[in-house]
Amino acid sequence: MNHLAVITGTHRGLGHALAKHMLSTGRYMVWGISRYNEIEHPNFHFHQTDLSSSDAVDSLPDIPTHFHSYTLIHNAGILQPIAPAHRIQPTELQRIYQINILSAHLLSAWFIRQTLPVTASKHILHISSGAGRYPVTHWSAYCATKAALDMLSQCLALEYPQYRVYALAPGMVDTDMQSFIRSHTPDTFPEVQRFKSAKELNQLLDPLMVSNKIIHLIENSTTSLPVKISIKDL
């Protein structure tokens, strides 16, 4: 294996599909960061970590320095609370900010400290969302954290030009998060019908297809792409 990929949220959804796809190529050693694991592969190393904890990064080991490329993919994220801003509890806000943006900042800093001295191709990919670029009713917490993730990515790209940094909005991917969104009623989430219609019209994206595009982006990164991108750009 010539490449090391550190991926958060590998237990399910896009992170799980991405880890499995990378492993299937035979080119990647994958470190999975998640609370749970179902992947069994000789080139997969699971690091049980709860990203809702502020000291989650402290338990991670040092990164080996013999790989030809290094990639951090921060995919882990939560959507809830879905509610008007005045009904969100402080503990709910603290949790979503910790998982969606604070852990991304801490992990990025850890990854950079570990790989900065290494002469190799280096990438940081944050899984963002269109919700960080366009407001969504009752998603104030999610929208705010994803917008912050976009800005974090842009700042890192300025500070560390030797890294290719991206904030990717992957579109509507057919994962458990989409099922969770569709489980709401218009009373709790006024825009729910848009997501139900996307499912009914077969407009959701296959996680395997999205993961394939991400791998292609990493292996063929170019300075012609901006930091903030969407799946349509790939």
TrEMBL record:
Supply the alphabetized keyword list.
Cytoplasm, NADP, Oxidoreductase
> What superkingdom does the record give?
Bacteria
Where found?
Cytoplasm
Q: Which organism is it from?
A: Schleiferia thermophila
One example of the protein's molecular function in GO is: sepiapterin reductase (NADP+) activity
Q: What is its main location?
A: cytoplasm
- Know the name of this protein? Benzil reductase ((S)-benzoin forming)
Q: Does the keyword Cytoplasm apply?
A: yes
What GO terms describe the biological role, i.e. biological process, of this protein? tetrahydrobiopterin biosynthetic process
Presence of the UniProt keyword Transcription in the record: no
Annotated GO CC locations: cytoplasm
Q: Which PANTHER family match?
A: SEPIAPTERIN REDUCTASE
